[in-house]
């Protein structure tokens, strides 16, 4: 299937490792120009940038600490300048703090919300303003989680709450911008074996695996294929949806 993403300009947050890396490279392989943010893993980011450029597209790694609203704004403008505009935004960057509910500090809670919810809000707001001003259609894809619907039983309540907020924001924004030809969707992921979660999954592999009807952890390729579909013209008539890519954990 030709996704017709050649020449599209994409901003992906958290693109140096794991799911984000897979998304960046998948877009590049389809001929899209990609800018992506990174925070701590500079060498990994440069490697992703080089690999994406080898596909013959423009690729730009941009440092951003997304807990700071000013850096989210700077990221958007740097990406727009590097690519000459943005057509597609993928809000992927997130943290997965671990603490039992009664032990979560206000600072921990606020940090999770700033990175997982506020940064996507600010970046989406900036893109929608540009798209409306230019009279262009566009795509926003938010990466959420099964935890948004099932909650957490392993000490990640702040993460689950942030991902539920992202789902609700997806629906509200989709309703507001549909008439402008802008679609806003989310992808709910399950247990993905990445650097962020890999150790925890391996320590309790049998317990976690019992929760996945398909019998395996997801890969970054599982995530990126769904994201690319929602970003493509083949998903023109889908908006405000959360696609279940959890291996059967949700079945909704």
Structure description:
- Helix content is 46%, strand content 15%.
- It has nine helices and seven strands, in the order βαβαβαβαβααβαααβ.
- The protein has helices at residues 18-29, 42-53, 69-83, 106-134, 147-150, 157-177, 198-203, 205-209, 220-231, and strands spanning 9-12, 33-38, 59-63, 88-91, 138-145, 182-189, 242-245.
- Strands 3-2-1-4-5-6-7 form a seven-stranded parallel sheet, with helices on both faces.
- The longest helix is centred in the middle third of the chain and has 29 residues, at 106-134.
- The mean pLDDT is 94.
Give me the strand/helix succession. Answer: EHEHEHEHEHHEHHHE
Number of helices: 9
Major beta sheet, strand line-up = 3-2-1-4-5-6-7
Summarize the amount of helix as a percent range.
40-55%
Q: What Rg is obtained from the alpha carbons, in whole angstroms?
A: 17 Å
Structural class: alpha/beta
Which word captures the global form? globular
Keywords:
about 250 residues; alpha/beta; 7-stranded parallel beta sheet; 9 helices; 7 strands; about 45% helix
Question: Topology, pairings included?
Answer:
Layout: E1 9-12, H1 18-29, E2 33-38, H2 42-53, E3 59-63, H3 69-83, E4 88-91, H4 106-134, E5 138-145, H5 147-150, H6 157-177, E6 182-189, H7 198-203, H8 205-209, H9 220-231, E7 242-245
Parallel strand pairs: 1-2, 1-4, 2-3, 4-5, 5-6, 6-7
Helix pairs in contact: 1-2, 1-9, 3-4, 4-6
Give a quick summary of the entry.
The chain is 46% helix and 15% strand.
